[in-house]
Specification:
Length: 360
């Protein structure tokens, strides 16, 4: 007996098929959508600032949205440039000094470790000249070597280089137009939702938006607290580069592991260069170890995890799971994406507990 469908069921099957095909198309176009996705994430974070500026009145007229978007994007770009200007001078200052200080550091390492290792029957001697040569080749390549490497990279991976340049060019352009059309874009998305699902979808969207806003505020608080902690702790320990290294470590904490790793490497370089003994290295180990404990067990679980309804174990699992599934981008989006999924799962659980299947 052939299966007969009503007109409404046929329409449902048709539109489900259309949306399924659309999702599959988006998956296939994933590499092309990278700048659009990145711009959309940044636009979501910056849109509240644009809305606040639009409420500012110039005499009798509100500030045009185009002007508000321009101001916000300019300030965002200035913040990124400031971060680069903080990092680059530190690297340019420390890397040549590190190269010059390697022989003395290796001699101290030999003097400290070699006798103890010999007592254990291990014959090890560090070669300062060899290590210096390796580091020199890696960190202090001549201009000709750099240009030849760049040219070889361009010849071998020209398409990849052009792709990165296109992405970096497209992101600010897409970001500008997304912020400009954000209210109209949300209105079009709301109108695309089937009418019988409008109220539940709007409720879930508002709940997810509130959670993400709490996440952003919590993450910003963690960044500021850690930037102040690392800067103050390194300054108390007597580091000359306490302020730039501390600020960099704190501001990059939103990238799990990478921000901490960059700050730790810079602090260790400063310790090797500035201190004649091991006190600088010990100070860095204590400061950054304590910073990780404060961040991992106090700040992130309380200011970020609890605000979005995720416990410490859930936060750790989300970071590992999204990193495994989506790589580095997944690590960045693990907590906000988990917050949105938590909203959906809460509604699904509520529906399940009220269903006849559960109560039968």
């Amino acid at each position: 007996m052939p299966l007969s469908l009503t007109a409404e069921q046929k329409q449902t099957v048709f539109w489900v098929g259309v949306w399924t095909a659309f999702v599959c198309l988006l998956v296939l176009l994933g590499p092309v959508l990278t700048p659009f996705l990145a711009a959309a994430i940044i636009a979501y974070a910056l849109n509240p600032a644009v809305d606040r500026l639009c409420r500012v009145r110039l005499g009798r007229w509100p500030l045009p949205r185009t002007a508000a978007v321009t101001v916000v994007i300019t300030l965002f770009a200035a913040a990124l440039c400031a971060l680069v200007l903080i990092v680059v001078p530190v690297l340019r200052k420390e890397i040549p000094l590190l190269q010059a200080a390697i022989p003395a550091f290796m001699a101290k390492l030999n003097a400290a470790l070699a006798p103890r290792l010999q007592e254990l029957g291990v014959q090890v001697r560090f070669d300062p000249a060899g290590v210096k040569q390796i580091v020199t080749e890696q960190l202090a390549a001549s201009g000709d070597q750099i240009w030849s490497a760049l040219l070889n990279s361009a010849r071998i991976g020209g398409t990849a280089v052009l792709g990165w340049l296109a992405t970096l060019t497209l992101v600010p352009v897409v970001l500008f137009y997304l912020l400009l059309d954000w209210p109209a874009l949300l209105s079009r998305i709301a109108k695309a939702v089937p009418r019988r699902w409008v109220n539940p979808a709007a409720h879930m969207a508002m709940e997810a938006d509130a959670l993400l806003a709490q996440y952003l505020r919590g993450q910003l608080t963690v960044m500021l607290v850690l930037a102040a902690y690392y800067s103050a702790a390194l300054a108390i320990a007597g580091f000359d580069v306490a302020l730039p290294v501390g600020i960099l470590t704190g501001l990059l904490v939103f990238i799990p592991y990478l921000g901490f790793g960059i700050g730790l490497v810079l602090a260790l370089m400063a310790a090797v260069l500035q201190f004649a003994d091991w006190s600088g290295v010990v100070a860095v180990a204590v400061i950054y170890g304590l910073g990780q404990v404060i961040e991992g067990f106090v700040l992130t679980p309380r200011l970020v995890g609890e605000r979005i309804g995720l416990g410490p174990l859930t936060v750790i699992f989300a970071l590992l799971a999204f990193g495994q599934l989506f790589g580095f981008v997944g690590v960045l989006l693990a907590l906000p994406a988990s917050a949105v999924l938590a909203v959906a799962l809460r509604h699904l659980r509520r529906h399940y507990l009220a269903s006849a299947f559960y109560n039968a």
